[in-house]
């Protein structure tokens, strides 16, 4: 029933242009919160790979564990955050707790020093905060616009989010330039403290400007653990959950992509954060247009094209050709992958979820992806260490192709 509309929902009304006014002030406010928060988050994530691999000399396997933890630690807490938000109908409050928790961990990174265990613990707590906030935030977006504009709304939000992600590494570089060293403990601590101050501003914006919009309480249905567990009994939700997990296994993580790119192009360590800048610039430019395109021509085709772009990124990393044109194309395609998949996948999911459990349902899909990403990151690190980078990238390409085929089988409507 639900699958007959997947990837075909079109906006046939008067929303041919993507205007901030049409999207709604609440979506823009949530975008502003994400923008500021992502400046803070990307300041840390932009320097973390070189800090761990080149500074603390972690092996690919250990880095894979840490990198997987960076996303995988959100998995169970996404479900908890989604369920609490649906149960209490206080989505803004649950999201706010998550944002505040992530902000506090930036100071924890300073206290962690060079301890890998302590850094891992801070990363886990930071990701707990992200897990709590992500599903309630996305649910607020779905409640702020008509269904026909979900792609545009998520596109605008992700464009603002990626603006922060674009600026974060530049701010980190600026802090390192002021300190005068890119490798000292004081330099990294300065980035962490600056990141905390910016994250605190994001929490303040959420408190002051985001409304906890409430749809009318459904006359049927209830929020309970039993009801949440029944979500996967619906064929549409179950197939999307499986597809999301399979697609999550195809992504190896930003840190690995950038480390491989630096190794191939022989870029100096000091410029490493600029890889994230290039990716997020492409994401920023493409997020809103691809969201509008998904509303008009279908969300599933846009998502699958995004994974096609990811396969091209892996092929370029494995190929013999190098140089600045290849570097620019690689980062552009990587940004296009995120722009075509991140918000668009949530827009694809939302319409098939019952209103009373929408946040829980979004969290369920995101949890599947987070677990899959954790497994993918660990396996890629292991393959790199055992067989070398070339073989590991080849396996990643095969994983993307497999994921696209399985997703097509699961989600393309059957002809009657």
Automatic annotation (TrEMBL):
Membrane listed as a keyword: yes
One of the record's GO molecular function terms: transmembrane transporter activity
Any single Gene Ontology cellular-component annotation: plasma membrane
Source organism per UniProt: Kibdelosporangium aridum
Name of protein: Nitrate/nitrite transporter NarK
PROSITE patterns: MFS
First-listed, main subcellular location of the protein, grouped into a coarse class: membrane
Annotated localization: Cell membrane
Membrane-crossing segments per the record: 20-41, 61-85, 165-185, 191-210, 240-261, 267-288, 300-318, 324-349, 370-387, 393-412
Alphabetized InterPro entries for the sequence: MFS (IPR011701), MFS_dom (IPR020846), MFS_trans_sf (IPR036259)
